């Protein structure tokens, strides 16, 4: 933050305290930003994503004239105002039709973002079937080798893990496992070297891999009795479904990544070495004794052991 | 007795929860995520075939993920059965930087020295005279009790213009003023401390450091690694890193490993 805000009354003080950096952070909120021009597909996609992230989403549905890849400051401003660290920006133009930008913000500065072209979209409303309750924590499935091998896709995996991690819950209700989101990238054909389109800004990269689609599907989970401890899983399409093509993207620099992934001192647990406990509950310690200097040990004083005088 | 029907029914209920995969999936149960790295093949253009393929792979992965979640330690509450999740293994960036440590105030420093622990004071105080709870300060606060009495005795040496009510209120206000002064002093001292810490961020010092750095680099850029260069006044001393050689009496196992690594480089 550029300016240090000072609370004038107790209520605003409490509100500011909620936004302060914390050791254990608040769940990340996402803001869904509508661009100056949007298609039906993009608008519906924003609405659906808003519904999926329900308690932690803010819809900015008025037209916002901003271009994240040209100038990120308006987005950073919106993040500061709304205290949101994730964003989806939707727009539609002749040059970039049906585009969605997924991104993250760290310390009210842009962290990373990925622009996609939506080649196929199916809304929550279009698919008739069972729908999970709002606010359910989704299961995430990433299939495809690219998520581990390709550098950009592995960063994308990290983004989506962050994006759909609803809250930092330490436990989950077993009957509440109703929703799974799958991210699939098919294996790339034996690669032919392709020239990456060079952009003027060195920090912005364009996807140079031969256009691989990212398939995002969202399913409703039905847990059936199987006679085992684990239930049998059957799934039915729920929506929203996306076929996305990666266009431009921006990755964080190493030092920003480092400062964003720092673990606070309070969360480190000290390793206790050489201390264990046995099943009864006794505390056991392993003690290391240094080498004894046998030459200098004082033994019984006998005349015969005396050093001869030279 | 014919049990075939019962057996058939049982078989129907018994659905296979095991999924065979070439490569086992990896999981991050803290984030409820599964990572499937099995070969999927190239992209499918037929829409229907694609959907069925996506659904099939997702179902299998979900089954495995749910099997894993169901094997976690559980806890049953009134709201249902909960599985305790482990800590996430994937590194997820924070949304804001790690909070800075706040400098201690004078009182906090003193309390630490003396081992005084803060005890939370109740805002409501029992008023013995009326037998009811009253706030310690603020509206109807007990700290205004004296000045609000309907009759206040005048001190014997008071002159005619002396207002007892006002003087009592002033006493109370002075205490507030005193505390405000202390708060101000604490913030000023904290700012001074901060400035001291950030001394290296002072532009002059920054330039100095940079100059020293570049001097060291330029010294070692000559052919003799700066051995025959003229010494500059105030030149930083540079410690050379000691060359580390492998120990002579290492074990045969270690030696074999090293030889292997050399061989692997050659072929």
From TrEMBL, chain A:
PANTHER family: BRIX DOMAIN CONTAINING PROTEIN (PTHR12728), RIBOSOME PRODUCTION FACTOR 2 HOMOLOG (PTHR12728:SF0)
Classification via Pfam families: Brix
Molecular-function GO terms, alphabetical: rRNA binding
Record's subcellular location: Nucleus, Nucleolus
Transmembrane domains' residue ranges: none
Family: Belongs to the RPF2 family.
InterPro entries the record matches: Brix, Rpf2
Protein name, per record: Ribosome production factor 2 homolog
Keyword Phosphoprotein: no
Brix domain ranges (all copies): 28-255
Keyword terms of this UniProt record: Nucleus
Cellular component terms per the entry's GO annotation: nucleolus
GO biological process assignments: maturation of LSU-rRNA from tricistronic rRNA transcript (SSU-rRNA, 5.8S rRNA, LSU-rRNA); ribosomal large subunit assembly
Organism of provenance: Smittium megazygosporum
Automatic annotation (TrEMBL), chain B:
InterPro entries on file: Ribosom_reg
Composition-biased stretches (Basic and acidic residues): 228-238
Stretches with biased composition (Basic residues): 172-184
Subcellular location(s) per record: Nucleus
Pfam families registered for this protein in UniProt: RRS1
Signal peptide: none
Keywords from the UniProt entry: Nucleus, Ribosome biogenesis
Segments for region (Disordered): 172-251
GO cellular component: nucleus
GO biological processes: ribosome biogenesis
Protein family (similarity comment): Belongs to the RRS1 family.
Role of this protein: Involved in ribosomal large subunit assembly.
Name by which UniProt lists this protein: Ribosome biogenesis regulatory protein
Species assigned in the record: Smittium megazygosporum
């Amino acid at each position: 933050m550029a300016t240090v805000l000072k609370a004038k009354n107790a209520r605003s003080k409490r509100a500011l305290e909620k936004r302060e950096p914390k050791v254990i952070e608040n769940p990340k909120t996402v803001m869904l930003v509508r661009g100056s021009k949007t298609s039906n597909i993009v608008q519906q996609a924003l609405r659906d994503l808003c519904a999926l992230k329900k308690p932690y989403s803010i819809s900015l549905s008025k037209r916002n004239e901003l271009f994240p890849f040209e100038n990120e400051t308006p987005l950073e401003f919106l993040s500061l105002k709304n205290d949101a660290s994730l964003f989806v920006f939707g727009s539609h133009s002749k040059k970039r039709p049906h585009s969605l930008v997924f991104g993250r913000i760290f310390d009210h500065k842009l962290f990373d973002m990925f622009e996609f072209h939506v080649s196929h979209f199916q809304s929550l409303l279009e698919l008739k079937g069972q729908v999970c309750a709002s606010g359910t924590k989704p299961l995430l499935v990433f299939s495809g080798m690219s998520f581990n091998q390709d550098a950009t896709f592995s960063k994308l995996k990290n983004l989506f893990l962050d994006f759909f991690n609803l809250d930092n819950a330490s436990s989950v209700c077993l009957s509440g496992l109703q929703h799974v989101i799958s991210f699939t990238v098919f294996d790339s054909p034996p690669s032919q070297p392709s020239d990456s389109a060079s952009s003027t800004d060195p920090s912005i990269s364009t996807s140079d891999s031969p256009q691989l689609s990212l398939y995002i599907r969202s399913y409703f989970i039905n847990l059936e009795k199987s006679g085992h401890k684990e239930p049998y899983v059957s799934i039915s399409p729920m929506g929203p479904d996306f076929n996305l093509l990666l266009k431009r993207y921006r990755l964080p620099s190493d030092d920003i990544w480092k400062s964003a992934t720092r673990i606070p001192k309070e969360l480190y647990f000290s390793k206790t070495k050489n201390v264990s406990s046995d099943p009864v509950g006794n505390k056991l310690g392993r003690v290391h004794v240094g080498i004894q200097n046998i030459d200098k040990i004082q033994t019984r004083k006998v005349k015969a052991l005396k050093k001869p005088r030279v | 007795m014919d049990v075939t029907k019962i057996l058939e029914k049982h078989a129907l209920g018994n659905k296979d929860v095991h999924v065979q995969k070439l490569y086992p999936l990896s999981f991050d149960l803290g984030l409820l995520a599964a990572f499937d790295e099995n070969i999927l093949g190239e992209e499918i253009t037929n829409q229907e075939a694609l959907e069925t393929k996506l659904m099939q792979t997702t179902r299998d992965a979900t089954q495995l993920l749910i099997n894993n979640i169901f094997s976690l330690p559980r806890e049953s509450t009134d709201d249902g059965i909960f599985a305790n999740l482990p800590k996430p293994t994937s590194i997820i960036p924070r949304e804001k930087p790690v909070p800075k440590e706040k400098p201690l105030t004078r009182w906090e420093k003193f309390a630490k020295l003396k081992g005084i622990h803060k005890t939370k004071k109740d805002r409501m105080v029992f008023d013995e005279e009326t037998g009811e709870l009253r706030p310690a300060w603020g509206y109807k606060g007990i700290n205004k009790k004296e000045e609000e009495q309907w009759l206040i005795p005048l001190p014997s040496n008071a002159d005619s213009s002396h207002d007892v009510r006002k003087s009592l209120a002033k006493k109370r206000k002075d205490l507030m003023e005193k505390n405000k002064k202390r708060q101000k002093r604490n913030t000023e001292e904290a700012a001074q401390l901060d400035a001291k810490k950030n001394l290296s961020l002072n532009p002059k010092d920054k330039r100095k450091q940079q100059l020293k750095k570049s001097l060291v680099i330029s010294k070692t850029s000559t052919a003799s690694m700066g051995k025959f260069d003229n010494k500059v006044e105030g030149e930083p001393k540079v410690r050379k890193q000691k060359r580390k050689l492998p120990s002579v009496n290492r074990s045969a196992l270690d030696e074999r490993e090293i030889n292997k690594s050399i061989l692997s480089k050659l072929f």
